[in-house]
Amino acid sequence: MRVQQDYNVGIYCRLSVDDGTNNESMSIGNQRSMLSEYVNKQGWSIEKIYVDDGYSGTSFERPNFKQMIDDVERGVINLIICKDLSRLGRNYILCGQYTEIYFPSKNVRFIALNDGIDSLHSNNDIAPFKNILNDMYAKDISVKIKSSLHAKARKGEFLGPKPPYGFLRNPDNKNHLIVNHEVVPNILRMFELVISGVGLARIAKILNEEGIYSPTDYTDSKNHNPADGEFQPRYKWSMFTVRCVVENQMYLGHMVQCRKRSQSYRTHKIVRNDKEDWVIVENTHEAIIGKDLYDTAQKVIKARTPIIQKKEEPNLFSGLFFCECGCRMTHHARTATSNNDYFACGKYYRQGGGLKACTSHYIHYDRIYEIVLKMIQNFVNRLENDEQSAIREITEKLCVDEGKRFSTVSKELEKQKKRQSEIDYRIKRVYEDNVSGKLSDELFRTFQQDYEIEKSTLRDSIKTLESTLRELEENRTDVSQFIKLLKQFAGLDELTRPALMALINRIIISETKESSGKRADNREQTIQINYKFVGIL
Q1: What is the pTM of this model?
Q2: Domain 8-141: which CATH class?
Q3: Are 495 and 373 in contact, with CB atoms under 8 Å apart?
């Protein structure tokens, strides 16, 4: 970079809670004063001072930092100065990209005053190591903050930004919740409507028609200033909002937290935790809903299957019958043009075959009834004829199937974890090659983007595989329990709802196989039954 006497200087100051606001030497005022004094002593012109107060250094999505980069692009400033490298940022990859690649390419001088870093000189070999140390500091602080919050969550302290609908912060203890009796009738009514068989979408419509404020509008109305005019609601109840209320264990008096987390201390992307990772502490505050009422509502929601037309008799297969795509089969009642009840894939019904979301998997109600009844009867008959042979056959099949699946999942998990480590190593190598000049900026950005995308995909896949392994380990088959259950239904000559719920987890149907000259009713379809205790046989 050529030496020049006149510079248009951009002073950059940043501070976040993670950096420690109690340290006076780190304050924005201190940074601005120290840097301004230094620039004036050099006889340079201060073009602009950029301040990001309260923004983490792990992210570069900061308003004034982005404004500074825009000014660099427009040629407004040609020297950037900050107190130290950690003020620029704490992501060592992106910090290195700015200081080693971007600023030099724009002929912008960079100074980190307290670190003795000046891009005009060549003695800056320590800069990459300082960037790494700053990144490690950010990671360490992130871990400590998460540990502290988890410790508080395990004590049952409320840590959310605002209380759930139906609760208020205790004025004497901000981490304790008290009941908001003003909206309790609305919550009780939602649970009662669910139990009476009213769907979630219909409940939302009822609440909107009656002018009951949604949770967000209710909070906004309480904070509304009458001087601004009459409050105007903006958010309506939706099926999702109603579901959030009727499935929330907080109404039982339990504290439920850590349902979401930051995916990385660098990206700050929020992702949902698996339910087993939630922190639930029971009996931390006054309950709004009784356990019996809550449990009954959950059973109704879980078992509910949409029926297109009303029937007098309930659907036997409600909540049990699934398409091979994973979506529930939708029950369609008989109409003027169709003499039989039938089932079709719910995804196909909602999105249509034109979108190729799935196919109809059409099957008559009477046909699925007959198939399921015969499959259960065959098991019961084999058990009555030769119990020991039936037990041996089931056990052998389950052991082989489970062993193969466990081995397959374990190998794939090991393979993906190995690839994840390999990508971390490659990201480090391309960064080093770029800094040393062996790799162009364009190729560096391409490699970096591709690797980050693959890493994100691998993280999700590894999480799924680990969950599958846990399920395989936990759900050990219990043939004796299954046999004991089957014996209760000896002589079964018709299907009943209690029998299906006792014996079956789910029924899965495949699409009909094409066969010329055959009617749809006679085409072959594979039906699989996932039984309690033993799974698919």
Answers
A1: 0.39
A2: alpha beta
A3: yes
